[in-house]
Design goal:
A hairpin with a 5-residue loop joins strand 14 and strand 15 (473-481). The radius of gyration is 46 Å and the shape is elongated. It folds into three domains: 3-149 and 384-416, no CATH class; 213-346, no CATH class; 427-665, no CATH class. Helix 4 (74-88) crosses helix 16 and helix 6 runs antiparallel to helix 16 (369-408). The chain is built from 24 helices and 19 strands. By secondary structure, the chain is of the alpha+beta class. Helices cover 54% and strands 12% of the residues.
Length: 665
């Protein structure tokens, strides 16, 4: 038997309220939340909703949104209700809407309930109030701030700004600058990697002490600097002796070191860049069959200084100051002296702590006091994480008892939306424009998408930008006009907006999605469209006549005096057309015809015939308009804002007056 079946066994008969032509589950008590678990999801008001659409506690919504994707689904609501039932058992109406949790409400025989109770006692213990049997949300928030104020960062992490000793702070900084992924905080894994690298460098350095120092350090403490000079010249010297060996085999090798470029073009000896490039290609000294480099002979200027240092620091200590020539056997002897040191250098660990001060690095490898202090801080951070987890569990229980019923009445059901005195959690406030109050205001993040969804739904929608007193736009809303007439609503019109917290903002219309609001407006709309089309047609004809007349004047080259006459005639004709001359003529003909016809007509029969004719003509328009108004569905406003709505939100006459109100004096 699954959880849903078990929960539904104790559900009392469900009660529904009717709003529009849809039935909504009545959730008027804490125990009625059990009925949500047995209600098919297709009967819920919403099937999907963005989390930022609700004006509710931010932490409560985070606990509710298990997927952390910014959208709420029925499965998450059911999961929250089931968890709440495991913690509280039978829900008390006294708990709903309050931020105080009494221990007597907790279901102690359930594991979830025991965890919440233990967390509550632990929080009270930290506050020095272990003997109390009730805890408030403000107590939980106080402990949370107390834990977070210690500067240890997230559980298991230590902030680089934590208050500690100078050696420990320096250690944290060095870990953050080397092995850590973040410079803001470090974790235990960062510390272990840092120590591992320090120990690997220390072990590598110890290898040098184990071997014969004379063999590994041919020049003592100065070996490292002289080894750097040796490696800088190694490739150049090896290439020189190799060329000398090839000269013995083929004398043409010497002539190959010419001043010509590889492509045969001569070198521009007046160009410094080309000369420097040539120096890099020319051997370190003149190639000869004896394979000898004379320190006081002709040397490549590029290498002369380094060769001088090489003689003083490496050659003379080994062979004395009597000779000025570096021969092949000298070079082989020098290479043999550096073999052990070179082998050791190549074993150097590839780590990020090599540049640290050697003495501090050895101290870290040996777990000095700074490392011990950092390990203590990490352990405290882990303990704080456990405390924060307990705080979070307790906070979740208090927030669920305070907000879950109200939230269900805005997701599963929606009675406050249809109540004149109520305010749904997704309503932003009331907008006042053109002498009316528009109570159903939704936040809109993408106006174009919202308009596309609402088009064709026969709903008149106002889109308005809400801004503060400094003109900074806070957000944009959409509000339906559900009763009365269009009035003087127009784009750019200013009004005032009172949000759900009682704050006042500016409101300015940015767009109107027009549609008939009442039956009278629906009947007048076709005639208005016809009138606008007729005016546009008359303007078009007038402009065409004016253009033709001007063309005639230009083409026939009428004299100025005659042109003045034509202008006066044109002005008269346009004035006559504008004042309805054609219409008056038509009315005159129609009047004469009617007078002649009515001379022998029975007026009573004519009256009823006229009434019948008008009724026949207007009846289809009346029926069509009435059906369109009756079938207005406000779902489109929520769906355009990213909701998934199951139930119809048909707009009845009473609801229409609720959403758009005109106050009477």
């Amino acid at each position: 038997m699954n959880a849903t079946t078990r929960d539904s066994l104790s559900v009392t008969p469900k009660k529904f309220d009717r709003f529009g032509d849809s039935h909504y589950l009545r959730l008027d008590s804490a125990e009625s939340l059990r009925q949500v678990l047995a209600l098919p999801e297709a009967r819920w008001f919403a099937s999907n909703a963005p989390i930022d659409a609700f004006r509710s506690d931010a932490r409560f919504l985070q606990y509710l949104n298990e997927n952390r994707d910014g959208r709420l689904r029925p499965r998450e609501i059911k999961s929250a209700i089931r968890w709440m039932l495991r913690v509280f058992g039978r829900l008390s109406d006294d708990a709903v809407g309050t931020y105080s949790l009494r221990f007597e409400w907790i279901k102690k025989e359930n594991e979830e309930g025991r965890k919440v109770l233990a967390a509550a006692k632990k929080v009270l213990g930290l506050l020095g109030r272990s003997n109390e049997t009730q805890i408030d949300l403000k107590d939980v928030e106080q402990v949370r701030k107390l834990v977070e104020s210690e500067g240890l960062g997230e559980p298991g992490w230590v902030s680089s700004k934590v208050e500690t000793s100078e050696p420990c702070r320096r250690l944290i900084s060095e870990i953050a600058e080397t092995v850590a992924n973040s410079e803001e905080a470090i974790c235990e894994q960062d510390l272990e990697e840092f120590i591992r690298q320090c120990r690997s460098v220390d072990e590598w350095e110890q290898e040098l002490a184990v071997d014969d120092p004379t063999e590994c350090l041919p020049f003592g403490e100065e070996t490292d600097d002289r080894y750097a000079l040796y490696t800088d010249l190694y490739d150049r010297l090896e290439a020189f002796f190799a060329l000398c060996q090839l000269t013995k085999i083929s004398p043409r090798v010497k002539s190959m070191a010419s001043l010509a470029e590889p492509n045969g073009d001569p070198v521009d000896l007046g160009d410094l860049q080309e000369v420097e490039t040539l120096a890099e290609r020319v051997p370190i000294a003149a190639v000869n069959s004896d394979a000898v480099i004379k320190f006081n002979g002709s040397l490549n200027p590029r290498d002369a200084e380094q060769l001088g240092a090489f003689r003083e620091l490496i050659y003379v200590p080994l062979f004395g100051d009597t000779s000025q020539s570096l021969k092949r056997h000298h070079w082989e002897e020098i290479k043999s002296r550096f073999v052990a040191y070179d082998t050791w250098i190549r074993k150097r660990p590839d780590v990020m702590v090599s540049d640290l001060d050697p003495e501090r690095r050895r101290g870290y490898a040996g777990e000095n006091a700074a490392v011990g202090e950092l390990r203590r801080l990490l352990a405290e951070s882990e303990e704080n994480g456990i405390q924060l987890e307990s705080v979070g569990l307790l906070e979740k229980a208090i927030l669920f008892q305070a907000h879950l019923l109200a939230f269900a009445n805005n997701y599963v059901s929606c009675p406050d939306l249809y109540s004149p005195a109520g305010r749904a959690l997704f309503e932003m406030g009331t907008m006042i424009l053109d002498g009316r109050e528009f109570a159903f205001c939704l936040r809109v993040s993408d106006r174009d998408r919202h308009i596309r969804r609402c088009q064709g739904e026969n709903v008149f929608v106002i889109y308005a930008a809400i801004s503060d007193v400094e003109g900074e736009i806070e957000y944009e809303i959409a509000a339906p006009v559900t009763s009365g007439f269009r009035g003087h609503l127009r784009e750019g019109q200013w009004g005032v907006f009172h949000d759900s917290h009682g704050r006042e903002f500016n409101a300015q219309i940015t767009r109107l999605l027009e549609s008939p609001i009442s039956l009278v407006e629906g009947l007048i709309a076709p005639f208005r469209r016809f009138g606008r089309a007729a005016v546009l047609r008359l303007d078009s004809l007038s402009m065409e006549a004016e253009t033709n007349l001007q063309d005639r004047i230009v083409n026939e080259r009428i004299a100025p005096k005659e042109r003045k006459i034509f202008d006066q005639a044109e002005g008269f004709s346009r004035s006559f057309l504008a004042t309805g001359g054609i219409t008056l003529a038509a009315i005159g003909y129609a009047g004469a015809f009617m007078a002649q016809t009515l001379a022998g007509t029975d007026f009573s029969r004519l009256f009823w015939a006229s009434i019948l004719l008008i009724s026949v003509l207007l009846l289809p328009l009346v029926v069509t308009t009435a059906l369109r108004l009756r079938n207005r569905d406000l779902r489109c406003l929520l769906e355009g804002a990213g909701w998934g709505i199951n139930l119809r939100m048909r707009l009845t006459s009473s609801l229409a007056r609720t959403f758009t109100r005109q106050r009477r004096i």
